[in-house]
Amino acid sequence: MADEPKISEELKKMEYEPLSSIEKKLIAWSLGIGVASLVFFYWLSISFFPGGH
Questions:
Q1: Residue 18 pLDDT exceeds 80
Q2: What's the Cα-to-Cα distance from 16 to each of 11, 12, 13, 19, 47, rounded to whole Å?
């Protein structure tokens, strides 16, 4: 067990890799879908279940 490298040491050895354009698009789409879903479900709950607010 003592011979195994620690995660923090391995992370320090890694080189910096900037995000590619497709990764940036995936992050943006994921955040957009998440925010749009929150807004939609909030509107849905207000419209169809007004007693809870």
A1: yes
A2: 10, 10, 10, 10, 48
> Rounded to whole angstroms, how far apart are CA atoms 47 and 53?
10
Structural domain range at position 39 = 29-53
Flag whether pLDDT at 1 surpasses 60. no
Better-scored residue on pLDDT, 15 or 32: 32
> Tokens in use for 41?
């479900």
User: How many domains is the chain partitioned into structurally?
Assistant: 1
- Per DSSP, the residues of 1-53 read -TTSPPHHHHHHHSPP-PPPHHHHHHHHHHHHHHHHHHHHHHHHHHHH-GGG-
Q: Is the pLDDT of residue 20 over 60?
A: yes
